[in-house]
Amino acid sequence: MHAPIRGNASMNRTFRLLKRRLVGAIPVLLIVVIGSFLLLEAAPGDAVDAYVASVGGDAGMIEALRQGWGLDASPMTRLAAYLWALLHLDLGHSVAFSRPVRDVVLERLPNTLLLMGAATALSFALGTALGIVAGARPGSARDRALSIGSLALYAVPGFWLALVLTIVFSVELRWLPLSGMETIASGKVGFARALDVARHMVLPVTSLGLIYLALYLRMMRAGMAEVWRMDFTRAARARGIGRRRIVLSHVARNALLPLVTMLGLQSAQMLGGSVVIESVFSVPGLGRLAQEAVGSRDTPLLIGIILVSAALVIVINLLVDIAYAALDPRVGASEASA
Amino acid sequence: MSLARLLRSPDAVAGFVILGLLGAMALAAPLLFPGDPLAIAGQPLLRPFQDWALPLGTDRLGRDVLAGLFHGARTSLAVGLAAAAASILVGSIVGTIAGFAGGLVDEVLMRITDAFQTVPGFLLSLALVSVVGPSLGVVVMAIALSAWTGPARIARAEVLSIRERDYVASARVIGMHPVEIAFREVLPNALPPVLALSSVIVAAAILTEAALSFLGLGDPNRVTWGGMIAEGRAVLRSAPYLSVIPGIALVLAVLGVYLAGEGVVEGTAARERQA
Amino acid sequence: MSALLELRGLGVRYSGAATAALEGVDLALAAGERLAVIGESGSGKSTLARAIAGLLPRTARLHGTITWPGLDHPARNGRDIGFVFQDPGSSLDPVMALGDQVAEVAHANLDMGWRAARRLAVELLDRVKLPEPAALARAYAHQLSGGQKQRVAIAAAIVARPKLLIADEATSALDTIVQAEIVALIRALVTEDGMALIFVSHDIGLAANLADRIAVFRHGRMVEQATTAALVARPRTDYSRALLVAHLGLEA
Question: What family is this protein classified in (chain A) (predicted)?
């Protein structure tokens, strides 16, 4: 009944978990693809209209293209063709950019990853730290203040915060650049360029991350309040362990676990949030691209962004699962002993 | 009795006061500002507190900001409540079917739920509005499309724990039809935890609506706070109040929903502890 | 024999409770003495154990005095008092390696570096007769049985060789065979280290097996205390007699 204690048990656990999650991701991705296909079908115009609109061509050419691309076939055949193209990483043709969707998306992806990564790091680090401060003594004045402050912050829409921060820091104080990813044609390289990009990213990262900071703070605080009620914190006190160590190594350590799971679940929401934030600050990322796609009625591009985002969310969740398995020794234990 | 308990929590009182005021604003909007809030009311870019006929001033086109605020409350609350109701309804039905049917049906429905949770909700809303075209109904649908998964998961988990209980078994024994059992015996009992989530869903719906309007994807024939914020962006340097004022209304609305929701949940929890 | 611990008129009232959880308890414990505290749930026996170790919730109000004539300083948890809880499953942190949970007691109470503390932890796991102590130090609570977990908890309690070990219903969550093993382990450790023992239990048979002296509690008051032999042979109160009869009835 009790698993033998093995040296490489945790590696085995992680691999088993990964394999199961990867297999589980396949039907999910398939459903997303079929959904995207339906949305594409529902949109007025088809891929040929889009192509011709951007490249130009006459009625005869349109007919030829429709046949060539198999668009005159039955929906099932077209779905099969769509899947086949996706398997070859062909996301279709963007009307607005007159280029393959894949190329446009891949060009913008790194900027969004940078924005999301920085916002996640900021909100997670600061949110858990403040959550520990609040949760160290439940019911204290500091706890109350942080709790109310985080709730207020949680109610602030990111795009409005972005505008307010812009008014204060870019328009009034002139400390930070108004928009963009870096100073255009500055000729900066190396460290100077990195610093320039960092200055440009301060406001977008803050606007995107603050709401999650509030979320992580609240979760950490609530989680710690729950862990305080568990017997092992009293046991640690009975063993003469100092309060500081109980708070950090036992209470916070246990309360951190659900936050790690949240990190994966929030990735989809944060990608959605990056649409408005990137639009406000003109950050050339995936989110702003989505808005441009909507503006120019470029449905293939929008669907491409959705597919790439879904794939990204799946990958992030896989990484989070691995991290979680490393942090919680109980993961996969029931299968190991079964 | 439960009202008395509710009034003991200052947070909950603040929440209900805010919501009450916003509700009154929404209801009073057509009485206090009977004209079209999108019509020109005075000289453009009038600052707040200059003219008592237009206390909060006017925007770039000379539209009354206060009238916009009142009519915007209507849109925000209506869309927030409708989208939340739709997602709770759809989510509860899907969750109940999945939990009660089990087997392949459950598997398929839960994979679909997974798929919806994998796609960034806001992108999904964006895509739907962009393909179908912006109108109030479509915006409600678009928000619900990305928000029904939470209620579905909770409803399913509740149904799974309820369906083995005695009263369900006895319903089975007396030969009730499974669909009847699911929706008359199981769903009503699975609903409270789903409803506990409703304040979060309403708040998220209000924020999503505002973000869609901010990007110009709201119903063009209605004033929305998100749209007002976007409108003010063009004159952010000279007239920041145009973006700040509707934003404050938005923050208060969402905060009010959270506070009231937390008060209700805590009140219920306290009652259950005492019982 | 000099007294290690003296209680004078000890009373405890939890906030919001109508009656006191503990009232007017006078009790002395000699160094190295083994005392069993017996009672049903709600008798105040666990409250007594927690009051002695200073583990009552902050809202609880305490009357009377707890003094430590046998110590030249106020008693410190971990160093002077070892405490073993009822539920071995929940008294260990689920996500910290077991060896570390024993080692942190050494680090906190013996001014010991982490490396030395971990070595000592393995020795202690061996001392409480756990198999493969070095491998077990790297394992986690969910990998162990209830009895094994309680052995780890006992190891964590005796790290600093305290003068007093308090076992609060430490065996009642375990099955009978494991119970006997844990009682045997506690007896051996207490004898080897010369520790005093307060063994809180509802099981008078188990207590009689282990203790020099028995104190019987009911409704927050001590109804009787006597040496084990005296109490078993000639209980002075009806309640003690009833407890004994109930126990013997089960045995018969």
Answer: Belongs to the binding-protein-dependent transport system permease family.
